[in-house]
Design brief:
The protein is mainly alpha-helical. The protein has helices at residues 5-22, 30-37, 41-53, 78-86, 112-130, 133-146, 161-173, 187-192; strands at 57-60, 66-69.
Length: 197
Amino acid sequence: MRLSKKGEYALRSLINLGIAAEVGRTLVQVSELAESEQLPVKFLEQIIQALKEAGFVKSVRGKFGGYQLAKPAKAIKIGEIVRLIDGPLAPIRCVSQTAYEKCTCPDEEHCGLRMLMLDVRNAIAGILDRYTLADVVEVTLRKLRRDGLPLPFSQIAGDGPARVSARVAKQLAGRAQKPRLDATEGVLHQLLGDYTI
């Protein structure tokens, strides 16, 4: 499984909509989402439309309209979004639960490659289906607050939300990356636990 650009943009946009909701922002325009993450607007519009059709976001029309989550962030599993945008999580079709296809192997039941790829699919699905959008939003906000950075989509001294997000990105880019967490435990898992971040 490889996350496509479309899948990445969908997840980043949903995370930003979740952050906006947490900081009290009810609606966000596509242009703001695109600017905050430096994404192409036209491509993002298509992605947001797919998310809307699937019931993950809803829109409000008009001059002050925009998008918001259609259901609580805790009700949106990350795996649902990846499957919607990028399709099955399985690296080969003969281990897929949603798009199974018989492979060319003459003995599928005893195929070592299939058994290995089934473990890979289960590991990926286990992680993506364990975490919700709310989990990712919580960790993101917690780390921004810890580092004393302004929260995206918050109004600060006349700055629009996109400018705040761009400023946060510049501040983060200037920091040295120091590994602090044990990757074998899963970074998100540790950050949601009692670990200091």
